[in-house]
C-alpha cells in the first residue's frame, strides 16, 4: 500500500492549486477540475467579447489565464479573425500544465472524460486527512446520525436504520452495491461523452482515450488505430506494474540518492558561504585600492586649486592697482604733484617702467592660471572593461555557440545555443540582444539570465532584425561572448489556424494528423481509379484544404513546410465567398500548359494568364518554388524557378490588398502580388500525387521541453 500522505503533489489542480474536484482529462492527458475548466473557458470567452480587457481576466478569483494565452486573445481580437462559417465551432482551451492551446472539439467540456480513478485517490486522501470528521447520514431527521454505509447505486450515505428502511429485504434496492462511508460516487459503467447512450469498449491508440464502437465506425476515430478495452487494460496495467515493481526494487538506490542529495544540499550551503566570504574579501581589497587612488586624486586636485587661486588673486590685486586713485595709478598721480625736477626725475624713472609694464599687460590680457581641471579627469573606460570581465581564476569556460538551425523566429523568438565540448560547464548563461537600427549611434543591449541552453523572447518588434550573443558564467568566471547572430522577425503578427477537416475535406485522398497541423496526399488506388477516366494530356483534380479561421482585416503571417518528396503543392489565399467554387472548380482538370502558375511546363503558359481562378496560389514541388507567369514576371522560365526553402511563409495585408510569399528561414520575400480582400480571407492549400504540408508550430515558453519529450 502506498502512503496517501506522500502523494499530495500529484493531487493538486494546476489551475486552482487545490485538491482536484471532479477532475477531467484533457486531450493533452493533463488533469484539471471541472469547475476550473468552466471558469477558464468563461474568462476566455469574456476576453473575446470584451476585446481582451483587463477586467475580463479577473472574472474568477480561483484561476488566472496565463500571459501567453491572454496575448493570443488580444492578437485574435485585433486581427479580426473569424471562424469559418462552414465549419462547426471548436473550443480552444489554454492548458495550465503544458501552456498549450488545446482543441476540445465541437462538444467542448462535454467531450471530456471524468478521471474517476484520480477522483477516488483524492477522496481516499481527503478521508485520511479528515479521519476524525464523520460522514453524516443523508436521510436522518435532525440531528442526523453518523453514516455507516454508502450506496453506490443511490449515490447516498445511510446510517443502519435508514439503510434498512430504503433498502428493504427482498426488493430491487436490496441488491444495490454498498461500501463504507464515502463522498466519492462513481458510475459502474463508463459512458462515451460523444454518444451518451453507448458504453466505451475500445481504446484509441492515436488519441490515447477510450472510445465506443460508434466513434470507430463513423466518428472522429474512424481512421485511427484502436484496440479492445480489455487488451488496453491488460497492456497498460502490465507496463505500469512492471515499471512500479522496478522502481520499488530500486528503493534502496533511491534512498541512497536522497541521502546523497541531502548531503549535497548541506555542502552547497556551506560552500556558498565560503565563496561569499572569499568574494567579499576580494572586493574589499579592490575597494581599498580604489579608495587610495581616490584620496590621491582629490589631494592633487586640492593642491592645484590652491596654487591657481593664489595666482589669480595676485593678478586681481595688480589690476585693481590700475584703477584711478588706487594702487599704482594713485601713486603715480601723487608723484606728478612733485614740483622739484631733481626729486621728480629720481622717482619717476622707476615708476615709468612699472607703468609701461602695466600698459603692455593690459593690451595683452591673459589669466595667470587655467580654470579647467582636464588634466585631473580620470579615464576609467579601460578599467571598467577589465572590471566587467573580472575573473578570480585563470581557468576559463567554453565559448557557447548559438545554434541557428534550432533557433526560430515566429510568433516568438526561440534562441538556442550549445558548447563545442557538449558539456554544461556553466551554471548560468546571459543572453543579450538588440534591434538593428542604422539611425541609432549607440547600441543598447537588452540582457536576460537563463539557467538552460535556450530562451523564448516575446518582446520583439515585427519586421525587424535583431543581433544575439550569449556568454556563460560559473561563479565569478565568465566566458567570452559568442559570435553575434542576426535573425529577422516575421513581417507581421503570426496568424494561428488549423486545417479544416469539415469544409470540402477529401478523406479518400487526404490524410490529416489528429492535431490537424499536417496534411498528406496519398497517391494510392483511388487516384489510379480517377485517372483511368481521363484523356491523354490531362491530370487529376487537385485536392484542396482550407484553414479553419478567416481574416477580416490587418496584416498577418503564417508559415509551413513542404516535404521534399512532394510532387505538386499549391499554397495561397481564397475569399470566403469562393470556397465552394474552389471545391467544384472545373479548371483543375486541364493541361498544365494552360495553367497560369503551374511551373511544370516549358513556358507556354506565359501566353495565357487565367484571371478566373477563385484563389491566389503559387506552385511548389520537386524541391522547387515556381514564380507565377504574370505580365510583370521574367520572360525566361528558368529565372522563375527557385530552390524550395525549408520553411515557407505567407504574409497577407488586407488593408493594402497584397499577399507575399516568403522564405521563412531568413524572412526574404520571394514573390508578391495583389489580391482582392473585400471579404473574409482563408489560407488554402492544394495537393496532388504524393505530397505533405506541415503547419509551423507556434513557439511557447515550453516549446523545447515539449519537443525534447517527443
From TrEMBL:
Residues 399-492 form the Fibronectin type-III domain. Pfam families: ANCHR-like_BBOX, COS, zf-B_box, zf-RING_UBOX. Its main location: cytoplasm. Residues 187-229 form the B box-type domain. Gene3D superfamilies: 1.20.5.170, 2.60.120.920, 4.10.830.40, Classic Zinc Finger (3.30.160.60), Immunoglobulins (2.60.40.10), Zinc/RING finger domain, C3HC4 (zinc finger) (3.30.40.10). Keywords: Coiled coil, Cytoplasm, Cytoskeleton, Ligase, Metal-binding, Microtubule, Repeat, Transferase, Ubl conjugation pathway, Zinc, Zinc-finger. This is TRI36 ligase. It comes from the Eukaryota. GO terms for biological process: acrosome reaction; spindle organization. GO terms for molecular function: ligase activity; ubiquitin-protein transferase activity; zinc ion binding. The keyword Transmembrane helix does not apply. GO terms for cellular component: acrosomal vesicle; microtubule. Residues 477-704 form the B30.2/SPRY domain. InterPro entries: B30.2/SPRY, B30.2/SPRY_sf, Bbox_C, ConA-like_dom_sf, COS_domain, E3_ligase_FN3/SPRY, FN3_dom, FN3_sf. Residues 336-393 form the COS domain. Belongs to the TRIM/RBCC family. It is found in: Cytoplasm, Cytoskeleton.
Amino acid at each position: 500500500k502506498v502512503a496517501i500522505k506522500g502523494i499530495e503533489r500529484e493531487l493538486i489542480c494546476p489551475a486552482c492549486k487545490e485538491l482536484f474536484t471532479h477532475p477531467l482529462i484533457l486531450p493533452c492527458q493533463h488533469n484539471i477540475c471541472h469547475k476550473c475548466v468552466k471558469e477558464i473557458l468563461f474568462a476566455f470567452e469574456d476576453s473575446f467579447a470584451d476585446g481582451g480587457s483587463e477586467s475580463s481576466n479577473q472574472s474568477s478569483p480561483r484561476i488566472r489565464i496565463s500571459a501567453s494565452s491572454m496575448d493570443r486573445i488580444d492578437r485574435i481580437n485585433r486581427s479580426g479573425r473569424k471562424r469559418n462559417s462552414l465549419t462547426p465551432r471548436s473550443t480552444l482551451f489554454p492548458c495550465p500544465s503544458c501552456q498549450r492551446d488545446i482543441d476540445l472539439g465541437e462538444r467542448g467540456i462535454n467531450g471530456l472524460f471524468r478521471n474517476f480513478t484520480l477522483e477516488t485517490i483524492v477522496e481516499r486522501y481527503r478521508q485520511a486527512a479528515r479521519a476524525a470528521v464523520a460522514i453524516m447520514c443523508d436521510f436522518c431527521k435532525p440531528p442526523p446520525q453518523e453514516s455507516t454505509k454508502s450506496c453506490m447505486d443511490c449515490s447516498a450515505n445511510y446510517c443502519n436504520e435508514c439503510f434498512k428502511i430504503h433498502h428493504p429485504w427482498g426488493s430491487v434496492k436490496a441488491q444495490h452495491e454498498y461500501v463504507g462511508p464515502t463522498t466519492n460516487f462513481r458510475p459502474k459503467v463508463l459512458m462515451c461523452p460523444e454518444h451518451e447512450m453507448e458504453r466505451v469498449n475500445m481504446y484509441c491508440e492515436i488519441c490515447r482515450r477510450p472510445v465506443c464502437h460508434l466513434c470507430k465506425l463513423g466518428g472522429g476515430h474512424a481512421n485511427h488505430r484502436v484496440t479492445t478495452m480489455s487488451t488496453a487494460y491488460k497492456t497498460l496495467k502490465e507496463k505500469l506494474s512492471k515499471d512500479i515493481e522496478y522502481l520499488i526494487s530500486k528503493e534502496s538506490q533511491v534512498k541512497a540518492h536522497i541521502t546523497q542529495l541531502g548531503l549535497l544540499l548541506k555542502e552547497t550551503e556551506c560552500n556558498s558561504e565560503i565563496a561569499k566570504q572569499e568574494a567579499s574579501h576580494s572586493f574589499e581589497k579592490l575597494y581599498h585600492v580604489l579608495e587610495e587612488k581616490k584620496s590621491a586624486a582629490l589631494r592633487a586636485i586640492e593642491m592645484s586649486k590652491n596654487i591657481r587661486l593664489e595666482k589669480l588673486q595676485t593678478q586681481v590685486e595688480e589690476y585693481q592697482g590700475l584703477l584711478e586713485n588706487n594702487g599704482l595709478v594713485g601713486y603715480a598721480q601723487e608723484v606728478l604733484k612733485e614740483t622739484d625736477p631733481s626729486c621728480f626725475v629720481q622717482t619717476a624713472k622707476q615708476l615709468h617702467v612699472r607703468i609701461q609694464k602695466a600698459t603692455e599687460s593690459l593690451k595683452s590680457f591673459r589669466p595667470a592660471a587655467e580654470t579647467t581641471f582636464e588634466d585631473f579627469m580620470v579615464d576609467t573606460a579601460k578599467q571598467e572593461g577589465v572590471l566587467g570581465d573580472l575573473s578570480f581564476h585563470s581557468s576559463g569556460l567554453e565559448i557557447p555557440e548559438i545554434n541557428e538551425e534550432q533557433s526560430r523566429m515566429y510568433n516568438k523568438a526561440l534562441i538556442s545555443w550549445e558548447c563545442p565540448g557538449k558539456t554544461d560547464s556553466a551554471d548560468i548563461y546571459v543572453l543579450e540582444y538588440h534591434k538593428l537600427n542604422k539611425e541609432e549611434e549607440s547600441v543598447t543591449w537588452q540582457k536576460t539570465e537563463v539557467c538552460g541552453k535556450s530562451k523564448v523572447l516575446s518582446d520583439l518588434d515585427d519586421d525587424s532584425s535583431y543581433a544575439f550573443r550569449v556568454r556563460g558564467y560559473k561563479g565569478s568566471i565568465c566566458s567570452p561572448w559568442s559570435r553575434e547572430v542576426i535573425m529577422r522577425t516575421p513581417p507581421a503578427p503570426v496568424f494561428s489556424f488549423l486545417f479544416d477537416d469539415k469544409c470540402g475535406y477529401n478523406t479518400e485522398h487526404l490524410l490529416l494528423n489528429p492535431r490537424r497541423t499536417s496534411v498528406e496526399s496519398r497517391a494510392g488506388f483511388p487516384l489510379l481509379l480517377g485517372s483511368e477516366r481521363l484523356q491523354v494530356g490531362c491530370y487529376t483534380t487537385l485536392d484542396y484544404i482550407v484553414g479553419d479561421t478567416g481574416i477580416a482585416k490587418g496584416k498577418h503571417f503564417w508559415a509551413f513546410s513542404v516535404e521534399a518528396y512532394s510532387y505538386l503543392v499549391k499554397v495561397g489565399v481564397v475569399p470566403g465567398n469562393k470556397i465552394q467554387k474552389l471545391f467544384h472548380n472545373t479548371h483543375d482538370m486541364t493541361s498544365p500548359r494552360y495553367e497560369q502558375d503551374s511551373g511544370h511546363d516549358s513556358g507556354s503558359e506565359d501566353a495565357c494568364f487565367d484571371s478566373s481562378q477563385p484563389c491566389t496560389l503559387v506552385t511548389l514541388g520537386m524541391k522547387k518554388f515556381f514564380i507565377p507567369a504574370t505580365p510583370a514576371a521574367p520572360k525566361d522560365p528558368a529565372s522563375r524557378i527557385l530552390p524550395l526553402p525549408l520553411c515557407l511563409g505567407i504574409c497577407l495585408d488586407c488593408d493594402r490588398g497584397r499577399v507575399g510569399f516568403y522564405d521563412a528561414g531568413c524572412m526574404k520575400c520571394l514573390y508578391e502580388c495583389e489580391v482582392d480582400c473585400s471579404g473574409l480571407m482563408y489560407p488554402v492549400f492544394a495537393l496532388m500525387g504524393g505530397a505533405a504540408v506541415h503547419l509551423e508550430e507556434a513557439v511557447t515558453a515550453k516549446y523545447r521541453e515539449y519537443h525534447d519529450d517527443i
